Amino acid sequence: MSRKPCCVGEGLKKGAWTTEEDKKLISYIHEHGEGGWRDIPQKAGLKRCGKSCRLRWTNYLKPEIKRGEFTSEEEQIIIMLHASRGNKWSVIARHLPRRTDNEIKNYWNTHLKKRLIEQGTDPVTHKPLASNTNPTVPENLHSLDASSSDKQYSRSSSMPTMSCPPSSCFNTVFENTSKDGTPVHEDDSLSRKKRFKKSSSTSRLLNKVAAKATSMKEALSASMEGSLNANTSFSNSFSEQIRNEEDSSNASLINTLAEFDPFLQTTLYPEHEVNTTSDLGIDQDYFSHFLENFGRDDDHNEEHYMNHNYGHDLLMSDVSQEVSSTSVDDQDNTIEGWSNYLLDHADFIHDMDYDSL
DNA sequence: AACAGTCTCAACCGCCTCGAG
DNA sequence: TCTCGAGGCGGTTGAGACTGT
């Protein structure tokens, strides 16, 4: 049993929209508002199906839509949300005001996915590619410069994966050099190359997040084995990096990270007493605050997100929803939910090289 | 200049969800 | 509880643009 297509009318136009059609649609929606898409074509005098009108409006004509290059901050948010949510483009779009799910999807498929592959990361699982240790990768690939690697990799249908560790991949892929090894000035670079240059900050930050996850995983494992000292602080190193972070473009993301991370809070703001009586040295007030902020349903936070630009991101909402379903008072369960999530998701960063952090 | 290969992204397709009746 | 339809979502396509030879 197959559903009847919604657009089966005679003489309905398909393909690219003309300026005239756009004008008609904009004019109609300005006058009557959105909704009732099925009737809009007839009322607006368009030979299009309602669905096509809705897509044209929501993805292109809506006045608040932001177009053009994605900022490095937006890229970072997309990558991290994709890691926690997968291909939930509409969910990701809710965290990027004025960007459409279609635009984010396209940007992921044409840019970010390739970049992760080049870094040796599986864009689906966000874990290291199994072929990372593939000894058949040609030696000369390791010395590809930025200007050539972008095209050689992306244009090849049998894209090779790099066998170098992530940090060295970053150096290899993102350094903007010409074929003779001399630096390429911004003016000489095409937009795509600029994107690559920008992405190095994304990579640095992701490395930091990965390092953080690893240290937390180790601490949690130690905790489960009963070998963790009550005063152990496994956030110091990471928070120090965050505090020293000079790249202001990452400020919003760092705030996001700091807010979703109850461990980080205690070391970023040492004036707050840490309750060291708990196994993990977690300040319960902060943890409760964290759960309160991030355990809410996405839809109820919509306004909140809009008011706070990138907002309190539900980057880790999987775990926050999971653990928030338990009583905050029941700290054992809460910590278990949190730690299980970390243990489940931290493995993929095993092979990361943190020397450059 | 011409051609071929590749990339980009707007638009389409088909399935899913959810609310109304 | 079931059916229907509008709207929403994610995957895919293809025309035009771009780049290299």
From TrEMBL:
Keyword Transport (UniProt): no
Region of interest: Disordered: 119-165, 180-199
Entry superkingdom: Eukaryota
GO molecular function: transcription cis-regulatory region binding
Main location: nucleus
Low complexity: compositionally biased ranges: 147-165
Bias kind Basic and acidic residues: ranges: 182-191
Domain Myb-like: 9-61, 62-112
Pfam families: Myb_DNA-binding (PF00249)
Organism: Brassica rapa subsp. chinensis
PROSITE patterns: HTH_MYB, MYB_LIKE
Domain HTH myb-type: 9-61, 62-116
CDD domains: SANT (cd00167)
Subcellular location: Nucleus
GO cellular component entries: nucleus
GO biological process, one term: response to other organism
Subunit architecture: Can form complexes with MYC2, MYC3 or MYC4.
Keywords: DNA-binding, Nucleus, Repeat, Transcription, Transcription regulation
Keyword Repeat part of the UniProt annotation: yes
Protein name: Myb domain protein 28
